Each structure stands twice: as structure tokens, then as C-alpha cells.
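Q: My labmate handed me this sequence with no annotations at all. I'd like to see what the chain might look like in three dimensions before we decide whether it's worth expressing. Could you predict it?
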Amino acid sequence: MKFPWTKVAVIALMLFTVTKTNGLPLGLLDEGVEPWNNETIGVITERLDQMNFPFEVKYNVDVYNYIKRYTTAGYKDAELILGRSSIYFPIFEHYLSLYQLPQELKYLPIVESGLIPDIKSHAGAAGLWQFVPVTARYFDLSINNQVDERLNPHEATEAAVKLLAYLYREFQDWALVMAAYNCGAGRVQKAIKQARCNNYWDLIPYLPAESRKYVPRFIAATYLVKHHEDHGLTPRYPSYDLQNTEVHRVYDYIRLYDVSQKCGLNFAEVKKLNPGYVNNYVPKSKAGNLLSLPASASDAFQRFLEEKGIESTKATMPEGTFKSTYKVVAGDRIETLAMLFNCSIEDLMAWNGLRTAEVTVNQSITVYFPKQPAAKP
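A: Here is what I predict for the chain of 377 residues:
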């Protein structure tokens, strides 16, 4: 087959790659905003060179356009994204750590959803990671008239990390993984065959239009988080109760409205923390469902469970011990916590009413330590 060199040359010209020596032609930047000069482009390029990315990085026009969009015309949205990162980055970091994937992948949902957990697309994708129903169900996310786990930050993140790990096993390159996450593994494999290579930057002309800009958008999102202060951007943080949360695993039917009333919480904030419960209640589940609440309501929520006669998640204090609590941080596993607290996994499960040997970030767990014997006089 005759290779379309003319077409490739035209596209290559359109996707002109910027180098340190020649800067970016000013006319190629977005219209409607005063263009950057070559000195500014040089500073941004130097910052990008000092950043860590999990793949080979090249700086084409799209990279600078998206950085410019975040830091100029779109700065208000960018500041909201930066603020929401305080809620969701610890969750991303936790599951990326559990599955031993690069932490830099936590910036991917900025591209996918702008860190809006209940956002939905016209194509039927939903949530922080923008799962379509067929992919969501393949990775064990439930979608029914009670729950849409694509909207649950914890459940959706674990599914997304599993998908990313699956794609990496196939492509062994994170730029290709991102392209496949966007347009599907089959489209990327087809592009590889057409281009006769497996380098993302060389594949660009053979990818769907959106996927051609996907990695540049990721680079720009990473730059935004790392260098927003250099552009005078200030994160617009959500309320303290939305940032400082605890996760509870519950097994019985609970109405979110009842929780908000009994615990003195704002219902809108309870709903915002738990968008996956589409009818505003947590359904009964043998495996348990995750309920995120402001940390300030932890004691009130335990009293609410007791008043409702719902199975408590806390065990009776063993004799000869004193009680302590620990809030799970990103990367914690129940196995490592058992070693840390010198107890068994079974102890931690019993003390916290857990039916599965799993913990997640921001989950408060109870630990009992043996009392020290009284000192002899």
C-alpha cells in the first residue's frame, strides 16, 4: 500500500512541535486572548522539562494551548478544579498505590471530568473517570435504580485503576494507555498498524481527533497543579466539611436525609459526598456500601446507628485493653495495618465490624491495645 506521505506532512506541519531553541509561533495560540511571547513560552517549557511524567513528553501546539486555556480564559474553572483536588486526590493516590501504578495518573480525571463526580456526557459516560455503562459493568461497577457506582469516587477510582493496569499490560507505554483509555484499545492497535510504530507522538495522525489531544491535555493538567501559583491562580476550596471526611462501611438500608437530620449535617453536602446513591438512600448490602460523611459527624453517626438498631460497626472493648482510632491514609492495606498495630487481620475486622478484609482512604478504624501493667511501688 502506498504510504500517504503528503497527508502526514500536512498534519505534521499542523502539529508543529516546539523546541527550546525556536519557541512557539505566536499565531498558533488560541484566539481571543492576548498571545504569549516567546520568553513566556520558554519559561513554561523549562518548567515542563523539570516535571516528572510517566511517558516520553513532547511539546506541541496543543500542550501550550491547553496550558494557556487553564491559566488565562479558563482560570475560574481551573481554580475550582484545584480546590476539588483536595477531596479527590487522596482517593486517587490510595488506589494507585494499592495497584502500584504511577502517582502522576491522578491528574487524568482533570481531563476526564474536571473533578466533578456526578458529571455525565452526551455519550453516556459518567463520573470522575467517565465510564460508559458497558466498561463500568465489566469492572464490576453496579448501575441500577439504587446505585450508580460510576459516581462513587472510591468504587469508580478502583475500577479505573484496574482498567489502566489492564491497558498497560497490553501496551507497556503510558501515553498509549491514555489514548486507549480515551478511544479504546482497538483503535490504538489499528493506529499502530497503520503507522507501523508504537510511539504515541508518531501515531497522532492516525488517532481519532479527540485522542490526538488527550495526552497534551494531560500534560497541561499536570502543569496546572504544579505551577498554578506561578500564574497567580488560587485554589477555590470547597467547605471544610467536604474536605475533612470519614468513610463508613454500612450494610443496612439508610436514608441520606435521616443521616443529615440526626447528625446535624447539610443534606446537600451529604448528597455531594455520596452522589452514587441515585435515590438518596444507601441500599442494604452483604458486602457493605461506602458512606462518606464529614469527620465532625463521626460520633453522631454511631449514635444514629445505635438508635436505628442497625448493626454497629464497632465491637465491644476487649478486657484489659484501651481504645484508639486510626484514620486510613493513601496506600494503607489492612495487612500492613495489622503489622503496624501488632494484631491480626481478623482482629481488625472484628473490632470494626468488617465483612471483607479491605479498608479505604479516610476510613476511621478502631484499634484496641493492651493496657500496660501498673508499675510496682
